[in-house]
Amino acid sequence: MKRIYLSLILLAFCAIFCSGCGTFHAMTYDGHNTYRTVDANNYGFTKNYPKSFTIYPFKNTTWYQEASERARLAMFQGFSLIGPCTNPDETDKLVARPFCSSDALKVARQQNSDAVIVGEVITQDHFWFIFAAYSYVMLKINIYDTRDGRLLYSGNTWSLDSDWGISFLSPISSLIDHINWSRITMGLYYRCAMDLVHDLRPDVTPTK
Fold first, then answer.
1. pLDDT by residue (tens digit) across 38-86?
2. How far apart are CA 110 and CA 23, in angstroms?
C-alpha cells in the first residue's frame, strides 16, 4: 500500500511538473498600446520625406555574431512599410569602409536612396536558469539625408521577452523559451523595428 501511495504522489508530481502551470508571461508592451515609446529625436523626418532607404550594415557590439544581421533584416522589413529599401546584398557590394557614416552616404547616393539608415546593436542577451528565461535586445539607429548628410532622426529602443516559473514545480515553460530563444530574439528585433517605424510614421503601422 505504501508503494501505491508513493507511486501516486510521484505520478501527480510528474503531471504538475510537465504541465507548465504556475508560470506567467511578462509582456513587453502596455496592454493599451501596441507599440512601445522609443527614446528618439526627430530633426526632419516627415510624412513626405524620405521615401526610400539604404539599410547600411549594422555595427555589432554584442557577443553574438548574428545580432547585427538580424537587426538589419528587421529594419529592412520594417522600413519597407514606409518606402522601398535597397537589397542588403546589393548594398554590401558597394561598402568600402564598414560602420563609417561618410561611406554610408556614398553608398546611398550610388543607390539613389533618399536616406541611409546606420545602426548599431548594443545588446543581445539571453538567460535561462531552470525556473526563468528571458531574451533581451537593444539597438539604436541614425537616419541621414543622402543629399546633404544631415541627420534626420536618431533613436534607440529595446525589447524583452521573459517567462518566470513561480514555483519549482513548473520550469517547463521557461525551458521551452530557452530552446526557442533564437526565434524569440529575432522576433524582438522585429518589435524594435516596428516601434521605430511607428514613432516615425504611425500612419503606416497597424494598431489595435
1. 999 999 999 999 999 999 999 999 988 889 999 999 999 999 999 999 9
2. 52
56-89 as b/e: b if 16+ CB within 10 A = bbbbbebebeebbebbbbbbbbbbebbbebbebe
- Burial category of 188 from C-beta neighbours within 10 Å (exposed 0-12, middle 13-18, buried 19 and up): buried
| Domain coordinates in residue numbering, the chain | 2-204
C-beta separation of 43 from 150 below 8 A: yes
d(CA 177, CA 19) in angstroms, rounded, equals 15
2-204 placed in CATH 3.40.50.10610: yes
**Which regions of the chain are under pLDDT 50?**
15-32, 166-169, 174, 177-178
Q: What gap in Å lies between CA 186 and CA 33, rounded to an integer?
A: 21
Q: Would the pTM count as exceeding 0.90?
A: no
| pLDDT at residue number 11 | 58
Phi, psi of 133 (to 5 degrees): -150, 140
CA 59 vs. chain centroid, Å, equals 15
* Widest distance between CA atoms in the chain: 85
Indicate the length of the chain as a whole number. 208
Decide: 47 and 203 in contact? Cβ < 8 Å: yes
Cα separation, 123 vs 196, in Å, equals 17
In this structure, what C-alpha cell is assigned to residue 119? 545602426
